[in-house]
Amino acid sequence: MPRIMGVDIPGKKRIEIALRYIYGIGPARAMDIVKKARIQVGTKADKLTDENISKITAILQNDYTVEGDLRRMVAQDIRRLVAIGSYRGTRHRRGLPVRGQRTKTNARTRKGKRKTVGAVRDKTERKTTGEGSGIGAAAAPKAGAAPAATKAGAAPKK
What we know:
The chain has helices at about 15-20, 25-35, 50-65, 65-85, 85-95, 110, 125-130; strands at about 5, 5-10. By secondary structure, it is mainly alpha-helical. A hairpin with a 2-residue loop joins strand 1 (about 5) and strand 2. Helix 4 (about 65-85) crosses helix 5 (about 85-95). It is elongated, with a radius of gyration of 30 Å.
């Protein structure tokens, strides 16, 4: 497994595929790097010489922003959007989709696991939360019931 820019790239894969394991390198950039380094397309990453690896590393350091620097730049851009209070910044802060996707349905990747808001639907949960916790239960006490105390644990006045 060759190590390039602090990333172990898989040795059994072709070099143009293996380079994609580095953050910030996709298919097009990987092909550009292979051509600039004058490495034959289709060469397995295990077969690279130290000279080839040093060429690839030099190209990445001089021409491209990858790995830690790129992650830092993206994080700074997001922090700037949040700080200036832009629409995109507020979407990032709330953890909602940023690029105009719908949120009534879908958006589960950004919003997380579904949380039910409103009425308790499960009958077992209703029993544990208390009987008669319906809409009119708090407003109208049952006939013959004692008046409710004003503070929790306080005895009613006589």
